[in-house]
Amino acid sequence: DQQVKQNSPSLSVQEGRISILNCDYTNSMFDYFLWYKKYPAEGPTFLISISSIKDKNEDGRFTVFLNKSAKHLSLHIVPSQPGDSAVYFCAARSNYQLIWGAGTKLIIKP
Amino acid sequence: ETGVTQSPTHLIKTRGQQVTLRCSSQSGHNTVSWYQQALGQGPQFIFQYYREEENGRGNFPPRFSGLQFPNYSSELNVNALELDDSALYLCASSLPSENTEAFFGQGTRLTVV
């Protein structure tokens, strides 16, 4: 059973527009959520996080929104840039481990 | 400040063999976690070490074992390799605080033939 789901395997967005990546979870006990970005042949790199007591966190072009009642979080990237093309993972913290989604491949078109 | 480094980067082993993967944690980080990432999937938690002791374990059989050393570096050992063990193995280091992000190495790509 997948506790963290990213239902879109890929997403294509025009450069300069907004990219919205979505993530759903099932376990209401998760209290911290993170987004990681991964390029080929590299490990995941941390992007942004949010505590379950908040509904929004912003860092430059990246904003994460959390809707606890819907058990849904999203990552907004605006404006999208070519270097944003990568696989994006959402992860939820449960005690000592991170539970990960399967990832969404974001392609930014010039 | 050095980042997380893993060795080797690529490895090919035969079914039934044993393998040891290594990880040096980021300076100052005393917690190391290991993940297995199969193709097209997100990383799956294997186990975590804190101050040289296993601090938590995911749904992996006992043939997956680990060590953490006094300098906080870590090893992942897999015995009796199976074809399904072929994956990218990721090591992440962090501080033990709950709200600290983990920093990942580049991974070791293991292929079992």
Q: Give the topology string of chain B: H per helix, E per strand.
A: EEEEEEEEEEE
The count of β-strands of chain B is 11
Rg measurement of chain B, Å: 13 Å
* Structural classification of chain B: mainly beta
Name the structural class of chain A.
Answer: mainly beta
Question: What's the story with the biggest beta sheet of chain B?
Answer: 7 strands, mixed
Distance between the termini of chain A: 38 Å
Query: Helix fraction of chain B?
Result: under 10%
Beta-sheet strand percentage of chain B?
Answer: over 45%
Shape descriptor of chain A: globular
Task: Give your account of this protein's structure.
The complex is a heterodimer of chains A (110) and B (113). With 110 residues, chain A is mainly β. Helices cover 0% and strands 57% of the residues of chain A. Chain A has strands at residues 4-5, 10-14, 19-25, 32-38, 45-51, 56-59, 62-67, 72-77, 86-94, 97-100, 104-109. Chain A starts with a strand and ends with a strand. Chain B is mainly beta and 113 residues long. In chain B, the strands form two sheets. In chain B, strands 2, 4, 5, 6, 9, 10 and 11 form a seven-stranded mixed sheet that branches. Chain B has a four-stranded antiparallel sheet with strand order 1-3-8-7, with no helix packed on it. In chain B, a hairpin with a 2-residue loop joins β5 (44-50) and β6. Chain B starts with a strand and ends with a strand. The interface between A and B is medium-sized, with 26 and 25 residues.
Short summary:
The complex is a heterodimer of chains A (110) and B (113). By secondary structure, chain A is an all-beta fold.
List the topology elements.
The complex is a heterodimer of chains A (110) and B (113).
Chain A: E1 4-5, E2 10-14, E3 19-25, E4 32-38, E5 45-51, E6 56-59, E7 62-67, E8 72-77, E9 86-94, E10 97-100, E11 104-109
Parallel strand pairs in A: 2-11
Antiparallel strand pairs in A: 1-3, 3-8, 4-5, 4-9, 6-7, 7-8, 9-10, 9-11
Chain B: E1 5-7, E2 10-13, E3 19-24, E4 31-37, E5 44-50, E6 53-57, E7 64-68, E8 74-78, E9 87-94, E10 103-104, E11 108-112
Parallel strand pairs in B: 2-11
Antiparallel strand pairs in B: 1-3, 3-8, 4-5, 4-9, 5-6, 7-8, 9-10, 9-11
